[in-house]
Specification:
single chain; mainly alpha; 115 residues; 4 helices
């Protein structure tokens, strides 16, 4: 995420202006680095908050959809075997759906923050 923010910042006029003066004065460089650090930290905080919000929404929706699907299948199959293997299979399916969803959330939020 930090790399993406930095790469996108290179397109920003404000970011480039921070480094316009090439005077080899260390204190000035420290000030530029501090401002850059603060800009990146701000973006990371926005990412963290948006990601958390979107993850919560996605997780609730995933659980709701998964539960609905299980109830429908339970009715059509006349139940599920109550075995460790079935519990593992169901958990594996839920974990897979979560992983797919969280990847989409990460991509969408990253693009939103970087834009």
């Amino acid at each position: 995420m930090i790399q993406k923010v930095f790469d996108k910042s290179l397109e920003s006029e404000e970011f480039i202006n921070l480094f316009e003066n090439d005077a080899p004065y260390q204190e000035q460089l420290d000030a530029k680095l501090l401002i850059t650090y603060e800009l990146v930290e701000e973006k990371i905080e926005k990412f963290r908050n948006r990601h958390r919000e979107e993850e919560e929404i996605m997780l609730k929706e995933t659980l709701k959809n998964f539960t609905t699907m299980l109830q429908e299948r339970e009715n059509s199959n006349k139940g599920f075997p109550d075995t460790p293997a079935m519990r593992t299979a169901l958990f594996g399916q839920l974990a897979f759906r979560y992983e797919q969803g969280i990847q989409d959330v990460y991509k969408r939020v990253s693009e939103e923050i970087i834009a």
